[in-house]
From TrEMBL:
One of its GO terms (biological process) is tetrahydrofolate interconversion. The keyword Membrane does not apply. NCBIfam families: PRK13507.1 (NF010032). One of its GO terms (molecular function) is ATP binding. InterPro entries: Formate_THF_ligase, Formate_THF_ligase_CS, P-loop_NTPase. Pfam families: FTHFS (PF01268). Belongs to the formate--tetrahydrofolate ligase family. ATP binds at T73, P74, L75, G76, E77, G78, K79, T80. Keywords: ATP-binding, Ligase, Nucleotide-binding, One-carbon metabolism. Pathway: One-carbon metabolism; tetrahydrofolate interconversion. Signal peptide: none annotated. The lineage of its organism: Bacteria, Bacillati, Bacillota, Clostridia, Neomoorellales. It comes from Calderihabitans maritimus. This is Formate--tetrahydrofolate ligase. It catalyses: (6S)-5,6,7,8-tetrahydrofolate + formate + ATP = (6R)-10-formyltetrahydrofolate + ADP + phosphate.
Amino acid sequence: MPYDPTKMKDWQIAEEAEKTMPTPEEWREKLGLEKDEIIPYGRIAKLDFLKIMNRLKDRPNGKFIEVTAITPTPLGEGKTTTTMGIIEGLGKRGKNVGGCIRQPSGGPTMNIKGTAAGGGNALLIPMTEFSLGLTGDINDITNAHNLAMVALTARMQHEANYDDEELAKRNLKRLDIDPKRVEMGWVIDFAAQALRNIIIGIGGKKDGFMMASKFGISVSSELMAILSIATDLKDLRERLGKIIVAYDKKGNPVTTADLEVDGAMAAWMRNTINPTLCCTVEHQPCLVHAGPFANIAVGQSSIIGDRVGLKMWDYHVTESGFAADIGFEKFWNVKCRLSGLVPNVSVIVATIRALKMHGGGPKVVPGRPLPEEYTKENLELVEKGIENLLHHINIVKKSGVNPVVCINSFYTDTEEEIKLVRRLVEQTGARCAVSEHWLKGGEGALELADAVIDACNDPVDFKYLYPLDMPLRQRVEIIAKEVYGADGVSWTPQAEEKAKMFESDPAYRDFQTMMVKTHLSLSHDPTLKGVPKGWVLPIRDVLVYGGAKFLCPVAGDISLMPGTGSDPAFRRIDIDVNTGKVMGLF
């Protein structure tokens, strides 16, 4: 240790590190767990969070470290890699440390982006299990979600085929569902653009109710959002019954409870409530719980995972999806509000290549070689692009948290480029550390670990951006101006009508505001890099998640079903037929 990531693929590093990975029984002893607090799943395990929380309820929480980033290139800037690096660096400093990250979706894993296990010597293991389903949480969410659609479509078929008297004989009452106002679709955990818009029920009257329908990717399901924010099994069960699947012809919501399917959905999801225990390649513990898709859902590792980690470890690291304008904003104003937890520090991940892109560098396209502007020194592009990083620093500071900037080092970065970034960051009062965790693991993250330890001792005057009793449109205005840097907000007539309805109905007063926009720009337009000026945020719709209790204002065109690119990762994934081991994951 460390391994040589310039000569070894990530899956090869993982394979070597997994040879000495602790077994569930060894983890139990290492972490001081009771025998019934760990639930083995082969060479990994789930943790019974309720039993652990009950035993450790009087133990003070550890330090809470959140990881976010600047506006990324389409390649990502290494938040998970940095999260692993922080854990490894703190481990090298002798700290009792662990973390919690999100489970990757099969869509990106089999597509251009690859898995979300980190990389090099800052990698989560076991990589194959992590990348290909882990302990089945996403599969359970997929089944529970699709069961709701089975219940809905079957009910619509029966109501179309039977009169009220016949329905009564079957112990059913007519819900009178409006086929033009079905909110839910089906889900599958792959990027399958061919399923975005479909027609179902083709055939005779025994073949279902014929109507337009759709598919989303599993991790975009409201059920994943519910798992992210649920505090326990009772809370999960109650939220599942409030999911709005459709509206009736009078405009009233039809829920999973109305379809009497919520209990069966909870049965499918009963095991998802417990986080899964994995580790870094240096064998520090890291939980995996909940999923990605931060541009429409909450996109955070779970509240449950953070609560357990803060009790078990003196330093707990959690990760938020995408950049600070999306991931940190939702962590700050939604997740922290629901959990009651307050971070000690937020780490903002930045790369020289992303700063160059924001400074006017050429377009970055996944699967294609980087233009030479990104591999050769160019101080002018870096200095122009630093404005995006400074904007994200200010976002975090508005919460009362003083951030640490991590320059996630690439071999193409030059000394002068790094000096420039460090100087401009430190002028804002934020700490800045260069980290080589990808190349060197914990040894390469010591400067970052020291900056995080130091920042954890700073006082935090934590405050939300807006009060929960503020009307929806005012919340959106504040987020748009204070977080994104917009001049204001425009609403389509349909979106404004919905917003007024939600504002006037007391039932929605405690719903969280979950903004929906691209992650590739501070604005709604993914082509606008840096810090766009002189623009207005257009809200075209407001989605409602009744179980998660989210109101989701939608800016721009966002699809719940990504597409598979022309050179997807699955072309390079295979198995060794002699050992059964998976090769080619990245």
